[in-house]
Amino acid sequence: MRSFIFAFAAALALPTLLPAQTLDRIKETGQIVIGFRTDAAPLSYLEDNQPKGYTPTVCFELATNIGAQLGMTDLEIIFETVDTENRFDKVAQGDIDLLCGAATITLSRRELVDFSVPVYVDGTTVALQVDGPQSLPDLAGAKIGVRSGTTTLEALTNSLTAANIDAEVVQFADHPSGMAALEGNAIQAYFADQSILMNMLIQMSDPSQFKVLDQILTVEKHGLAMRRGDTDFRLAVDRGLAKLFETGAMREIFETTVPGAAPGFALEAMFLLSPTVP
Length: 278
Known about the structure:
Number of helices: 9
Largest sheet: 5 strands, mixed
Number of strands: 16
Helix content: 25-40%
Order of helices and strands: EHEEEEHEHEEEEEHEHEHEEEHHH
Structural class: alpha/beta
Distance between the termini: 28 Å
Shape: elongated
């Protein structure tokens, strides 16, 4: 029987075995360790002390497939919490085998970790009060928020510079704090991934008082991060993902974990293009 284990980072002590290849370690220990973010709903979050969202669900199905590739019927799937500050270091150090949060594939991050084929496509946009600014240039002179340690911060900084917009950027430790600041008029706009903003908007006390602009500053491909140079494990991951795409399971996971949301053009393109010929 396959067992499922969830453990907080502080409660899980696994050895760091950098020289060992990941598939060998999985076969030896009977475990695969998956890191996930707790604060990126609907893509990756914690609810009822369990990992929830699109990417943890994808990774649970993927881990089952990897187990099958290895001929294992009793693989333990361990989920460990990570945050935006330590997630890639945990991958590089071998503390987790696979990062299954909302992680944008970038060249700078690939200096530290490898990524799977894309599993999601998102984009940076902005939440505003409904009677607030109508476009990015209207934010000149405003106080605007963004979460620290994310690609959104870099995208926002580049966009403001390119548009020659002088605004005060306030960094927040988490998205709820940023949205609370927007709700309390402490800032005039809050930038984040579109999926995160739409999910947080419906949880506000009066969602009708806020809006999310259609304008997308970036198109960001999300992937599953793993230790660099482990080509056998990366092939196993991509092989498993290809199977999920081929069978339509990826689309079904999206429809189940992000109910009521229609995939945009970029996400539809990913569903179409991602299956890989065996």
